[in-house]
Write a structure and sequence with these properties.
The structure holds two protein chains of two kinds. Chain A is mainly α. Helices cover about 75% and strands about 0% of the residues of chain A. Chain A contains nine helices and no strands. Chain B folds into two domains: about 30 residues; about 90 residues, OB fold (Dihydrolipoamide Acetyltransferase, E2P) (Beta Barrel). In chain B, strand 3 and strand 4 form a beta hairpin. The N and C termini of chain B lie far apart (about 75 Å). Classes of the chains: A mainly alpha, B alpha+beta. Chains A and B meet through helix 4 and helix 9 of A and helix 1, strand 6 and helix 4 of B.
């Protein structure tokens, strides 16, 4: 069928043949990820086994926050993952929309609940820190509001891709939502610089030097690495499960067709 | 190939349009996205007495006077400064734990005709520096930093400081 002259959306709605090639890459993905996943999980557990006790027990308190500073070791990595994960979601959505990569669709679908969980943890720990330190659970300043919007984008994406009977259509809608929501990322990152906010500006990625003492900075970086590895392992495991689920469904469908024909 | 190329261009074009629309909107709402106003902003254009707004800055060193209100609640008078200008603030209620001289605060209230800001809420603002108590003590002892006078010195001068080992050397 000649679809070259149709607009992209109409062309994409036409049935496409060659379902075999669509799952050719997922096969290789399953083999590769099956080899990587145990190592990734082990690395995440090992780094967190070092980082969490270091951060939550052995690192010093802050001179004015006291022990409350330990919330930072969860809050900051979760904030990094909320944003870094969203960058991943945006890249996956471009791959899915432009190159129609079926694996990208699945990865995005499995990424968003994990991203939503990380953002929720970031918001919750931030709120718990805010009450004793700022004197309030929540304020509507630019940083807090834009992160809340990010949380709703994660939730919205997770819900939207599952809301269609036609999974491909749901994935496409989700990808469009994810890319529209990507304009929020620079707003989250630079909100503390563009406008004055109650939230403090960035400490680790300051231009001159990190505003944290090394006794606080190093456990934070180790926790950040550990949580990032754990996040990656979770998303990879979920994507593998989703690919296998698709395969099983395709096999069952094929078996049912054979039974009907025979 | 042409379909992929076309989809990519369409996406880039949409992104460009969406990005510039967001940038324009945010620039247009610049004034409303600001969480608090500084004493210099107030000095430039004082809001009318019946309008509530947030005033933010550092608590001026030596300006805090803690009192007890007529109903027995704790009260405080202090001045909020941004270096260039300062505004007197009165507040009745419990101050947050981080409240101290030299600390950043954000107060919500109304500016009276006498130029005194009557706050109904005081929030402490934490800056972007984190240090163990020993390091803060070492900086204070050596005279590099008086927390009542504002932000800590450049982080590069203290973020690798080891107070236990440097104390005898500094003391000699």
């Amino acid at each position: 069928m000649d679809t070259a002259n149709l607009p992209p959306l109409a062309a994409s709605l036409l049935p496409r043949g060659g379902s075999l090639h669509r799952f050719a890459n997922p096969g290789r993905f399953l083999r590769l990820s099956g080899r990587v996943l145990p190592w990734l999980t082990a690395a995440a557990l090992a780094v967190l086994a070092v980082g969490l006790p270091w951060a939550l027990i052995f690192s010093p308190p802050d001179w004015q926050q006291g022990e409350t500073v330990r919330l930072l070791y969860i809050h900051v990595p979760m904030a990094w993952l909320a944003m870094g994960g969203y960058v991943g979601l945006a890249i996956g959505s471009v791959l899915a929309l432009v190159w129609r990569h079926p694996l990208a669709d699945l990865a995005c679908r499995e990424l968003s609940p994990v991203g939503a969980a990380a953002t929720a943890l970031c918001l919750a720990t931030g709120s718990l820190w805010g009450k004793p330190m700022w004197g309030t659970w929540w304020v509507w300043d630019a940083r807090l509001t834009s992160v809340l919007v990010l949380f709703f984008l994660w939730l919205g994406h997770a819900a939207l891709v599952r809301a269609f009977d036609d999974t491909e259509r749901g994935a496409r809608m989700g990808a469009i939502l994810a890319l529209i929501g990507a304009v929020n990322l620079p707003v989250v990152k630079f909100s503390v610089d563009w406008w004055n906010t109650l939230h403090q500006p960035a400490s680790v990625t300051r231009i001159n030097a990190p505003g944290l003492h090394v006794d606080i900075l190093y456990p934070l970086l180790v926790c950040g690495l550990g949580f990032t590895l754990a996040f990656a392992a979770l998303v990879l495991a979920r994507t593998r499960a989703a690919v296998m689920e698709r395969r099983i469904r395709a096999l069952q469908l094929a078996a049912a067709r054979r039974a009907e024909a025979g | 190939m042409t379909r992929k190329r076309r989809r990519l261009w369409l996406l880039l074009l949409c992104g460009l349009g969406l990005g510039s629309a967001t940038a324009l909107t945010l620039t247009a709402f610049q004034d409303n996205l600001v969480f608090f106003r500084s004493p210099s902003d107030i000095a430039q254009a004082a809001p009318t007495p019946d309008r509530a707004f947030r005033l933010g800055g550092l608590v001026e060193a030596g300006s805090v006077a803690r009192e007890t209100a007529a109903d027995g609640r704790p009260a405080a008078r202090f001045r909020v400064t941004d270096g260039a200008h300062a505004v007197s603030v009165t507040y009745t209620g419990v101050l947050p734990d981080l409240f101290r001289e030299g600390q950043g605060v954000v107060t919500l209230g109304k500016l009276g005709p006498d130029g005194v800001f009557r706050a109904s809420e005081v929030l402490a603002r934490h800056d972007e520096t984190y240090m163990p108590p020993e390091v803060a003590d070492a900086l204070k002892r050596s005279g590099h930093w008086n927390p009542a006078e504002g932000a800590a010195p450049p982080a590069a001068s203290w973020n690798t400081l080891e107070p236990e080992r440097s104390r005898p050397r500094n003391g000699s």
